[in-house]
Specification:
With about 190 residues, the protein is an alpha+beta fold. The protein is built from 6 helices and 10 strands, in the order βαβαβαββββαβαββα.
């Protein structure tokens, strides 16, 4: 785990702003930007259940409308070997910006370079909503801010944490092998499509 300060929102503030019992819901940029945020040292944030770390989570689509999915490898043992449709990760205090969403998209740009080797302009990220669940270890201390990003670039260079990358339509995915966040993000995407 990196020694970094990560962006967080109090659980009370999330409950005041949204009905987090829904597990996934549409959200506007203005609603995310209105959240009062702070930075907490990551090791502490992982065990602080009074705050949730805001994690940008992007669903990547190609020009055919297929979604990038992959098997997780690497440092996040709670998700190891599960399939995912999300590119993203922790946003730290180096991911500066004038608003919450700008900080999240700056962090997302960094994650795209690290995980799939491409530069994505902030304007390509389309906020669609949020996901929150309390059923998994990851869910107890993280809330996902879900974006879509459409790319035409087939020249992706995958990080070692991304195994078996492939492009699939939603109806081709066996969601029983996917992490909880991916199933929620795909439900959100279906809801707005």
């Amino acid at each position: 785990m990196k020694n970094e300060n990560v962006i967080c929102v109090s659980l009370d503030a999330l409950r005041t702003a949204f009905d987090i019992n829904k597990q996934y819901w549409e959200a506007e940029v203005s609603e995310i930007n209105a959240l009062p945020f702070c930075y907490i040292q990551r090791a502490k944030a992982e065990i602080d259940f009074n705050h949730k770390q805001l994690i940008p989570y992007a669903i990547v689509r190609n020009h055919k409308g297929e979604i990038l999915c992959y098997q997780r490898h690497g440092s996040e043992k709670r998700l190891s070997d599960l399939y995912s449709v999300g590119i993203g990760g922790h946003v730290n205090d180096q991911d500066e910006g004038s608003s919450v969403v700008e900080r999240l998209t700056n962090g997302l740009q960094r994650e795209f370079l690290e995980e799939v080797g491409i530069s994505v302009h902030k304007e390509q990220f389309n906020l669609i909503g949020m996901i929150d669940e309390e059923e998994t270890e990851v869910g107890h201390c993280h809330t996902g801010v879900v974006f879509t990003v459409d790319i035409n670039n087939a020249d992706l260079t995958f990080d070692t944490e991304i195994g078996n990358p492939q492009w699939k339509r939603i109806d081709e995915m066996d969601l029983s092998n996917f992490e909880k966040w991916s199933t929620l993000a795909l439900k959100l995407l279906r809801k707005i499509s």
